[in-house]
């Protein structure tokens, strides 16, 4: 048997013995709403339904001043007083896993 053909056949046989690991992509999700006229409540997690306790959630003014520096609690939520100036919420679960929510989308 040709050595190259043998190597290919051996590689295919080995691959058949070990099932391929399936990559389950999940993406971050975050929702913010007004709890009352003064308080914003944000809930973060992932598309696979997993929670995100401890994940960074910052409230940032458009001049890049951090108004609220926070982390999601054990229930994956964070509450804060609605800032007087325009802002956005940044849910940051790491590179490629961020969500930004504009103040105008929070009802």
CATH superfamily: Macroglobulin (MG2) domain
Mean pLDDT: 85
Helix content: 10-25%
Shape: globular
Total count of helical runs of at least 4 residues: 1
Topology, pairings included?
Elements: H1 3-17, E1 28-34, E2 39-46, E3 56-61, E4 66-71, E5 77-81, E6 87-92, E7 98-102
Antiparallel strand pairs: 1-2, 2-5, 3-4, 3-6, 6-7
Signal peptide: 1-25
Keywords: Signal
Describe the structure.
- Residues 3-22 have low confidence and may be disordered.
- The chain has one domain: Immunoglobulin-like, CATH 2.60.40.
- Strands 4-3-6-7 form a four-stranded antiparallel β-sheet, with no helix packed on it. A three-stranded antiparallel β-sheet has the order 1-2-5, with no helix packed on it.
- It has one helix and seven strands, in the order αβββββββ.
- By secondary structure, it is mainly β.
- 14% of the residues lie in helices and 40% in strands.
- The protein starts with a helix and ends in a 5-residue tail after the last strand.
- The chain has one helix spanning 3-17, and strands at residues 28-34, 39-46, 56-61, 66-71, 77-81, 87-92, 98-102.
At a glance:
Residues 1-25 form the signal peptide. The chain has 107 residues and is mainly beta.
Kindly list the characteristics that best describe this protein.
107 residues, mainly beta, Immunoglobulin-like, signal
């Amino acid at each position: 048997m040709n050595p190259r053909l043998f190597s290919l056949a051996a590689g295919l046989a080995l691959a058949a013995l070990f099932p391929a690991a399936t990559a389950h992509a999940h993406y971050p999700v975050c929702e913010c709403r007004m709890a009352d006229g003064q308080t914003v409540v944000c809930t973060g997690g992932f598309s696979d339904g997993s929670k995100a306790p401890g994940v960074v959630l910052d409230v940032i003014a458009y001049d890049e001043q951090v108004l609220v520096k926070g982390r999601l609690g054990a229930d994956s939520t964070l509450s804060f007083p609605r800032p007087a100036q325009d802002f956005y919420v940044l849910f940051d679960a790491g590179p490629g896993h961020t969500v930004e929510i504009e103040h105008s989308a929070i009802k």
